[in-house]
Amino acid sequence: MDFSRKHSPARTAAIGRTPPAPTPDATQRHRRWTSILVATALTTAMASTMAATPAQARVPAAPSHAAAATSLPTTTATDTATYVTAVYRDLFGRPVDPAGLQTWTSALRAGTPRVAVANAITSSTEYRSRLITASYNHYLDRAPDAAGLQNWLTMMAAGGTIQQMEAGFLASPEYYLRAGSTDAGWVRRLYQHVLGRSAATSEVNHWVQALRSGLSRTQVGMGFLLSTEHLTTVVDGYYVDLLGRHIDPSGRTTWVGKIQAGDRVEAIIGGIIASDEYFTRNVGVAATPTAPAPGGPPGDANTGVPAGTQLIVYDGNLTITVAGTVIDGLDVRGFVRVRAANVVIRNSIIRGPATPLTSPMSLVQSDAGPGTNLLIEDSEIFAQAPSRFVDGIVGMGFTLRRVDIHTVVDQVKIIGDNVTVDSSYLHDNLYYPADAANLESHDDNVQVAIGANIQVVNSTLEGGTNSAVMITQDRGSVVGFTFRANHADNGACTINVAEKSYGPPPGLSITNSVFGTGQRLSRCAIIMVETTRAAATVTGNTFTDGSAVSVSRGS
What we know:
Strand content: 15-25%
Radius of gyration: 25 Å
Helix content: 25-40%
């Protein structure tokens, strides 16, 4: 299976065709595509030159994106090697070499999250070279020359996307010449190459007129490449190649929307090969969560800083800007802000300042992006000065392992991709009623506003007034949320899932967990609307008295 190849767009009645013939909102689409290109002016300005004469253009090198993080299931050494071998086969079209096998199996066995390994592979020079070569072959009917390949690799390392590169190909004199050097011929070729279908006469006339009115070929090409029609086919091709099935409608909408919002194709491919579904399909066994903390469910005795650990007091706020920093044995009496990749904080306490907050702030902020890959383990996070404004950790791209979080309002606030809470103890939230200046607090153990690849496993969640898990979708879709093998209690309902305007969260799974009966609404362990329930996996959950958990219907 050669996953770097270009998927030929297939026509299907279920896919809305865009760009369409003239419609009242055509101007609005044009403005949106133009705004995308303004933000990428350097790349698109050089694009057509590079496609035709690649040696003439250069982009300054910049650091590549860091790998993202999710939880790594416990597997045997043989299972891990089988997984890495499958990834090489699917992404590189070749057997894994001994050095690659050793590097990635060692990383996975050492606890590196699968998605971190997957994203490192999909952002590698070898894999990006295959993507670039496939685009050259598809749009220009030739392989890239060495200088052109290197230029595009540099552009991608600096943050450029496949779509920006391909828009340059489509706008190039080379591509225009192959289309007969006429606007009408160029538009027809665009429909065939990008959308995989013939253009109607009205569609050709529409885009010819748009070009004559001042829209550039680069702008039109980018619009086609970011259209729902094209991206639906592309993302569906990823699913067919890697998972052996077509993407479901809600998942399709989510992933297409992410690419249109600026997410990189490589990151989406990385998320697919990091999924439990891909692992199970290729290894033949179900991926299992990491082993629960010793001594039973996570609690005071088996989370937080190990007894006897000597701590050094750090007075003040700590901002980490150096990749790979390891913090071990600190008692931080201030805030921690992580702005670098692959940071580790272990055997430490983060207790915040001695003065209560008067405006919202989290004790830990993981804000370097979904690829931050922050790991906090065997640590404690709490507010030494309680306040209605203080939360525990907020952000994306982090893993909590055997972490004790308490005495804050919201303990884990997720606003992006790649978050894992594993074998941790979230308890004793702060609650404040409304007063003359403030609304009532709505405290949760875990609150998810937006994000993909999120796992809460082997943990204890209790003491929240509002909920243990609140999926709000306030900022966007929540994709691939897993809640497994946990002990959870309290809240009005312990798990509350909202659709908002985004519909059922794709890939929602709540399994094999034990719920207490301390909810304010009697035995309301899980609440969601019927459309979410129909799309979710909810199995194997019981109350502490042994009775089965049923889903309460929300409105």
